[in-house]
Design the sequence.
């Protein structure tokens, strides 16, 4: 493989990938910062919006208050009061008309100033047309107009402020449009309604002031949620012109915005309610596009600069990285070739993509390059590794498999491989699957396993023989111990039988035998013979080789053990104390249970016999009681106890504290019997005067 060409190819590929990734990152950064910019601009201008809302509202109030003062001045004028008292006096009327005309002329935004009587008839009307005041002669009845009706309902010195609307003359909207606010107040004499005075105020100047915002676009929304004012003049005065440009169509979240006027989730609009005119209206601001676009251009420039910086920084790293990767590939290839077991990479059609020298040698090729691109399935008949198509199909479906494979060399040597095949999907996007195979040579391991199995089998056989010998030795020791007890038990009755026989022989030789002597000696012989027979039956329990499970009474078993050991107790002057629940029956192997109890008591008797200590009292206590869910057996002695350092070893094989010959298996065997045969537990511990051996048998063993 030409690694120099490969490095260049990899570098080009990486540069393209990095370019694509950087573009994606730049786009994501732009999208994120664009949103952040929108939010930042919105929050930054909240306080400015609040200030502008306040200034606008103050300006509207200031203008309206100015016209309120004019109306109040007219109402309080002498000319107006005289006219109200005598409306037939033309001189008074002319003077009042002059006052109306003066105010209209001197206030450029008043385009109509009128006095309407209590019936709604215009008595005085001054119009301003192209800057000139005109005393209108064609007076009309305005009793049906909303401003007359609403003003009529007010008390003295109260004022009616109309909504923003367009001026209407003869029931038609006046063209060109005159945005109008009407300010009016009722007239009373002695609490009797005498009409209204009203000013029609051209709000163009006020609107220009309101909409002249450097940062914001300005919208007015009326109580019907139509546009009063809009940056697009075609959408202004929507209600009166019946165009019905609904605010909801443009500002989708207007309802939410009305509740949270400075918390637009889209970070576009601010809203403020104005409660000055007849109906509430709303002023809405949005940041002008040029301010937003200016910030956006700056953001784009920064992102582009960052993109090029990242690309320029990444470029040498990518180039160096490509050559380093190629170098690493060379190292990896060398490493794979040095491995003694065959490794392969195939495509999903079975063609060799990568392999090492070990596999090439198995296939009989001197060079691995000669196998690259070859189809592995054509070697199937030679039974070579990685040549089975069915196995490849299985790994492609299961993703990975493991199996043991074998191959026979031309010299008839058989090789064994622990083979693992793994499916690899390139990025999971191009649906290009590959199969990676690693076959570890386990030929030596197989041979070692065979040798090990043979050695294990031999060791198990030897162990079983040793255990059998040990078991026989233990049985012999137990039998010997029982025989010692038999001899000790039968020694006295056999002596009595022997003496009785000798007495009969002497009396027979001397002809001194009588019926009474004969009967007495025969009774002695009979009684002791029966005793020997009964104890022989007891010994059968311990000498029995049968392992059957039976139900036996614990108290009766203890009585048998007591009879067997009776002479040992008498010989060494050892007392026995019992507290046994006679109703307890145990299900299990009676002989093994008896063996455990006998072994424990024998250990205590041995300690009394072999110890050089002097005992105040020689006593063995046996307590067998039924607890909540188990049978509790405690065997205590007063033989002085066991050194605490040996307590943890007491149940170990071959451990003994006895001075005479002993296998050290007694308590170990006893523990095995209790644990395995009776599923119970056994423990040994010291009390004040000696040792306590405690056995607990589970409830299911108690009947």
Sequence:
């Amino acid at each position: 493989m030409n690694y120099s060409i490969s490095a260049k190819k990899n570098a080009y590929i990486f540069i393209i990938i990095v370019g694509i990734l950087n573009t994606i990152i730049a786009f994501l950064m732009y999208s994120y910062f664009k949103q952040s910019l929108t939010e930042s601009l919105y929050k930054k201008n909240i306080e400015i919006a609040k200030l502008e809302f306040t200034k606008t509202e103050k300006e509207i109030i200031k203008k309206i208050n100015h016209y309120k003062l004019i109306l109040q001045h007219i109402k309080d004028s002498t000319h107006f009061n005289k006219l109200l008292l005598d409306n037939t006096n033309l001189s008074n009327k002319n003077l009042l008309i002059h006052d109306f005309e003066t105010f209209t002329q001197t206030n450029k935004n008043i385009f109509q100033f009128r006095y309407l009587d209590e019936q709604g008839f215009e008595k005085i009307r001054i119009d301003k047309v192209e800057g000139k005041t005109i005393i209108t002669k064609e007076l009309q009845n305005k009793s049906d107009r909303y401003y007359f009706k609403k003003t009529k309902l007010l008390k003295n010195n109260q004022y009616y402020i109309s909504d923003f609307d367009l001026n209407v003359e003869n029931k038609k909207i006046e063209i060109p449009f005159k945005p109008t606010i009407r300010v009016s107040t009722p007239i009373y004499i002695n609490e009797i309604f005498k009409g209204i005075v009203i000013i029609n105020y051209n709000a163009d100047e006020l609107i220009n002031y309101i909409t002249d915002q450097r940062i914001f676009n300005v919208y007015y929304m009326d109580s019907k949620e139509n546009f009063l004012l809009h940056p697009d003049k075609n959408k202004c005065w929507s209600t009166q012109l019946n165009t019905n440009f609904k605010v909801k169509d443009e500002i989708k979240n207007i309802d939410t915005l009305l509740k949270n006027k400075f918390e637009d989730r889209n970070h576009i609009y601010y809203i403020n309610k104005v409660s000055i005119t007849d109906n509430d209206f709303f002023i809405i601001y949005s940041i002008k596009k040029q301010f937003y676009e200016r910030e956006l251009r700056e953001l784009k420039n920064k992102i582009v600069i960052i993109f090029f910086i990242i690309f320029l920084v990444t470029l040498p790293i990518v180039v160096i990285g490509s050559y380093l990767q190629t170098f690493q590939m060379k190292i990896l290839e060398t490493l794979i070739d040095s491995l003694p077991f065959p490794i392969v990479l195939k495509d999903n059609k079975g063609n060799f993509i990568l392999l090492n020298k070990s596999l090439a040698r198995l296939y009989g090729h001197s060079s691995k390059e000669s196998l690259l691109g070859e189809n592995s399935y054509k070697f199937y008949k030679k039974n070579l590794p990685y040549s089975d198509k069915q196995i490849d199909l299985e790994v492609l479906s299961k993703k990975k498999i493991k199996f043991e494979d074998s191959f026979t060399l031309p010299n008839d040597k058989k090789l064994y491989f622990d083979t693992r095949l793994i499916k690899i999907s390139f990025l999971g996007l191009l649906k290009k699957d590959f199969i990676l195979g690693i076959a570890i040579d386990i030929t030596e391991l197989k041979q070692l396993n065979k040798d090990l199995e043979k050695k294990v089998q031999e060791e198990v056989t030897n162990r079983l023989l040793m255990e059998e010998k040990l078991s026989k030795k233990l049985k012999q020791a137990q039998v010997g111990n029982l025989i010692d007890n038999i001899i000790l038990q039968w020694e006295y009755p056999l002596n009595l039988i022997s003496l009785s026989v000798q007495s009969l022989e002497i009396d027979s030789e001397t002809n001194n035998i009588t019926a009474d002597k004969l009967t007495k000696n025969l009774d002695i012989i009979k009684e002791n013979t029966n005793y020997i027979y009964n104890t022989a039956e007891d010994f059968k329990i311990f000498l029995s080789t049968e392992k059957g499970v039976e139900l036996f009474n614990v108290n009766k078993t203890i009585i048998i053990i007591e009879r067997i050991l009776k002479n040992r107790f008498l010989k060494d002057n050892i007392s026995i104390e019992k507290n046994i629940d006679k109703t307890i029956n145990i299900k299990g192997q009676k002989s093994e249970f008896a063996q455990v109890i006998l072994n424990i008591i024998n250990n205590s008797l041995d300690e009394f016999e072999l110890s050089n200590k002097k005992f105040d009292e020689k006593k063995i206590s046996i307590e067998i009681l039924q607890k909540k869910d188990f049978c509790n057996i405690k065997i205590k002695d007063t033989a002085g106890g066991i050194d605490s350092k040996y307590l943890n070893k007491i149940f170990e094989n071959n451990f003994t504290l006895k001075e005479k010959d002993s296998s050290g298996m007694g308590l170990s065997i006893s523990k095995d019997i209790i644990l395995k045969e009776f599923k119970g537990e056994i423990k040994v511990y010291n009390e004040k005067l000696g040792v306590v051996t405690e056995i607990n048998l589970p409830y299911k063993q108690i009947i």
